[in-house]
Amino acid sequence: MSSTPTRIAHKRSYLMCRPEHFTVSYSINPWMEPSNPTDTAKAVAQWQTLYDAYVALGHDVHLIDPIDGLPDMVYTANGGFIINGTAYGVKFRVDERQGEAQPFMDWFAQYGYDVVPPVEVNEGEGDFLLVGDTILAGTGFRSDGTSHGELATIFDREVVSLTLTDPRFYHLDTAIAVLDPIQGEGGVDHANIAYLPLAFDAASRAILEERYPDAILVSEADGDVFGLNSASDGYNVFISPRAKGFEAQLRERGYNPVLIDLSELLLGGGGIKCCTLELRGRS
Ligand code: ARG
């Protein structure tokens, strides 16, 4: 193997929501089973370890107030999609989460973001990932394909549509992890990903193979513990401790896996990335 590249951590700004009202009272993905008990205090404690890890590594973490009756609000990745100070709001496919859309848009407006209310059904950074200068956009379960056109118009960037086919991986951020800094940041001109090939249809797999020949391909076992539902600052990659193979693959490539156990939040069908919305301010 050729020499391992030097990875550089880049400061990130994240939005999180303390899961004070977390429970599983309905089922909108295959992970959620309302008859299984949930432990809100445990969810809060696990969430706090993620918050603390981000802060300890120098990242800014902002908080949005949790709202009683909106147990999925902890998954802030579904609150919007933000680039250069512009926040595209969400329009949930599922009724159970409709009440979150306006509070997130209100938060973005209050903190000075230009808010664009959505026309099309979309679930924010759960389905949209910025890789370099390109937006990878998922559809198949939650966000409508029509939202991809809306995205391209709002952000004036290339949008690549990908179709998810396995209901376990119903949001794009459960099947792809973005590993590297955004294009041009700190002179870095690469942007790589890790993904789970079986989560996509054949056409989408072909696109990913062509665009990301150096991508890390993760195993089904690692995908199934939400190993790909991770955040990265370009060096530190925050992942589930259960994703053993992915952890080794990251180390081989010179990344530093930071292991955070969010097992309680997995009962709602979410992991590290789901609990993290990137706030990309004006550059
Ligand atoms: N229970 C939530 C839902 O089904 C989980 C959301 C996970 N978020 C994510 N970005 N993948 O909507």
Automatic annotation (TrEMBL):
GO function term, MF aspect, one: hydrolase activity
Keyword set, alphabetical order: Hydrolase
Domain of life: Bacteria
Matching Gene3D superfamilies: L-arginine/glycine Amidinotransferase, Chain A
Keyword set includes Hydrolase: yes
Protein name: N-dimethylarginine dimethylaminohydrolase
Source organism: Microbacterium halimionae
